[in-house]
Design a protein that fits this description.
Oligomer: single chain
Mean pLDDT: 87
Number of domains: 2
Structural class: alpha+beta
Helix content: 10-25%
Largest sheet: 4 strands, antiparallel
Number of strands: 12
Distance between the termini: 39 Å
Low-confidence stretches: 1-10
Number of helices: 6
Order of helices and strands: HEEEHEHEHEEEEHEEHE
Length: 249
C-alpha cells in the first residue's frame, strides 16, 4: 500500500524532450498534441510557456530576466502511456519540464489588476449542450485550440466556460479572463473572428486576409451570446524567482 501511494505521488513527466531556439522569422504560436504521444510547443517564450503550464494570463506573470519574453523556443516531447494525456496531464508534464530544463522556480501572489469578465450577453447564451461523449475514443474529446486560416477559428467540442476563459487569457487576450457566465455545462460551438495586432501578443501580425470577419468581441456576442467586459479583480499572479536558459538538445 505504501508503494502504491508513493507511485501515485510521483510527478508525471515527458519520457524525452527536445528544446531548441525558434527561428526569429517564425510566425504563429501554439501548444498541442501532434499525435497521441507527441507534444509540441511552437514559437513560445518562457513567459507564455509558464502561462500555459500554470493556467494564468501572461500579464499576471512578473519577474525573471528580460529573455523570458524575448527568446522563443520550439519544444518537442514524447508523452508516456498508451492514450493521449489529458490537458491537465500535459500541463503537469510541461511544469516538470520547465523546472528541470529552465531551472524555473516561482511563487504566487494575490494581485488586483485589470481583467475581462466573461458573461452572458443580453438576449441569452446561444451555446448548445455538447453531443460529444468524453469516452467515445481513447484520446478523449478534441483539444480546445484555435485554428488559423483566413480567420481565426475555434472549433470547440465538450468545452466548459472555465476552459474557454482559460484559453482566452493564456493565448488571445492581454489580460486575465474570469468566467462569470454561471454556465456549468459542457458545450459544442464554433467561433470565427478576425485577428489584429492586439490579439495573441501580436504573434499573428496585423491581421489575416478577411476584412469582413467580425473582431473577437463582436463575434462572441453574435455567435455565442457571450461578452467580455473590462473590469478589475483579484488574480492569482506568478512571480518568477529564478530561470536559466535551457541548453539546446
Amino acid at each position: 500500500m505504501a508503494a502504491l501511494l508513493l507511485r501515485s505521488q510521483t510527478p508525471i513527466e515527458f519520457e524525452v524532450a527536445s528544446i531548441k531556439k525558434a527561428d526569429p522569422d517564425t510566425r504563429g504560436r501554439y501548444i498541442r498534441m501532434q499525435t497521441a504521444h507527441q507534444f509540441l510547443a511552437h514559437n513560445h517564450a518562457l513567459k507564455t510557456l509558464i502561462a500555459a503550464a500554470y493556467d494564468v494570463s501572461p500579464q499576471a506573470i512578473s519577474g525573471g530576466p528580460e529573455w523570458v519574453e524575448s527568446e522563443h523556443y520550439e519544444i518537442l516531447a514524447k508523452a508516456p502511456g498508451d492514450a493521449r494525456p489529458s490537458l491537465n496531464q500535459q500541463m503537469a508534464m510541461l511544469r516538470a519540464l520547465l523546472a528541470d530544463r529552465f531551472k524555473l522556480t516561482i511563487h504566487r501572489e494575490r494581485k488586483e489588476m485589470p481583467v475581462y469578465a466573461l458573461t452572458v450577453a443580453k438576449g441569452g447564451s446561444k451555446l448548445k449542450v455538447s453531443a460529444v461523449s468524453p469516452d467515445a475514443t481513447p484520446e478523449g474529446p478534441p483539444a480546445l485550440a484555435f485554428v488559423v486560416s483566413s480567420v481565426l477559428r475555434l472549433p470547440a467540442r465538450y468545452a466548459s466556460m472555465d476552459e474557454f476563459a482559460s484559453l482566452l487569457q493564456r493565448s488571445a487576450l492581454e489580460r486575465p479572463v474570469v468566467d462569470q457566465t454561471g454556465l456549468t455545462g459542457r458545450y459544442d460551438f464554433d467561433l470565427e473572428f478576425a485577428v489584429d495586432e492586439t490579439l495573441f501578443g501580436g504573434a499573428l501580425g496585423k491581421g489575416l486576409d478577411n476584412p469582413t470577419a467580425p473582431g473577437l468581441f463582436a463575434a462572441l456576442q453574435e455567435q455565442l451570446g457571450l461578452k467580455l467586459e473590462a473590469t478589475r479583480g483579484p488574480v492569482s499572479a506568478i512571480v518568477i524567482d529564478h530561470a536559466e536558459r535551457a541548453s539546446e538538445n
